[in-house]
Every structure is written in C-alpha cells, then in structure tokens.
Amino acid sequence: MYKHILIATDGSDLASKAVTTGLALAKTLGARVTALTATDPWTAFPVAEAPALQFPVEEYQQWAEQNAQRILSAVRQKAETFGVACATVHATTYPADAIIEIAKSSGCDLIVMASHGRRGMARALLGSQAARVVSLSSIPVLICR
Predict the structure, then answer these.
(1) What is the pLDDT of residue 41?
(2) Which residues lie across from 89 on neighbouring strands?
(3) At residue 119, does pLDDT exceed 60?
(4) Residue 126 in contact with residue 35, Cβ under 8 Å?
(5) pLDDT per residue as tens digits for the range 48-64
(6) Domain 4-144, CATH 3.90.1300.10 — does that match?
(7) C-alpha span between 42 and 55 (Å, rounded)
(8) What is the distance of C-alpha 57 from the center of its chain?
(9) pLDDT tens for each residue of 4-26
(10) What is the largest CA-CA distance in the chain?
C-alpha cells in the first residue's frame, strides 16, 4: 500500500498526534517516513521612516533552525521507539508549499498532518495549511485532529 509517508509537523501538541498516527501507520505497513517541519520565511521589510530600527534576520534564522532541530529531534526519537526509518527535513518556505514540494521530490505516496480546524475569521486571517495541502496534493492526505 503506502511505502513512503511524509509526516508534516509544527511541533504542536496537535501535530504530535499526527506524528504518532503516521509512525504507527508506517510501522504497520513497513513504510519509511520523512518528517518535515517548515519555517515561514522572514518577511519583515525595513521602513524608510525608521532607519534606526534593525530587523533581526540573522536572529530569526538562528531561532528557526534551533526550533526545527528541536521538533525534528523529537520525531526521530519517537520513530526509533516505533522502529521506523525516519529522514528529516527543515524547509524555509511556507508550510503548505514545502509539504507539497518535499512529498513530490522525495517520492512520498501519503502525507500525514494535523489540522487545527479553524473556522470563520480565524481561518481567513491565519489560513489553513491543511486545506491548502489537500487542495494542491496529487497524493492522498491523512488529516489528524
């Protein structure tokens, strides 16, 4: 059935449920796993009226790398307890785009991720990465709640 599962995580408690579900499924199927976390790119732009303001791009990038390593390390440890082979990827682009691209380039045949289930204004303001992945993916997507 599925031979290579992409598990997307942001390190949240809800995403942890998707990690556990994806790893359990991979163990049952004998599939390998690629775990992905994505960090939004730095999008602040200097304001001409406030040249004294400094935008800490380097600090943001350092924080993003440390956070990604923390998240992916936890997934690797959990994968070891399941006895599942797990590669990890940290992408520095918008999450839905990263999920679609890494799934495609890695030859994954299933994406497992969580959805916060936001509705109304919260969804309009924050967006829904899960909805975007479902609408753009050419492979099956398992959404966990």
Answers:
(1) 86
(2) 36
(3) no
(4) no
(5) 555 555 567 888 889 99
(6) no
(7) 10
(8) 21
(9) 999 999 999 999 999 999 999 99
(10) 59
Structure tokens at 1: 């059935």
DSSP state at residue 143: E
Is the pLDDT reported for residue 43 higher than 80? no
Q: What is the pTM of this model?
A: 0.86
Asked if 82 contacts 19 with a C-beta cutoff of 8 angstroms, the reply is: no
- Residues paired with 102 in a beta bridge: none
Q: Which residues of 60-98 are buried (b: 16+ CB within 10 A; e: fewer)?
A: beeebeeebeebbeebeebbeebebebebbbbeebbbeb
- Give the number of residues written for the chain: 145
Question: How much helix, strand and coil, in percent to the nearest 5, is found in the chain?
Answer: 50, 20, 35
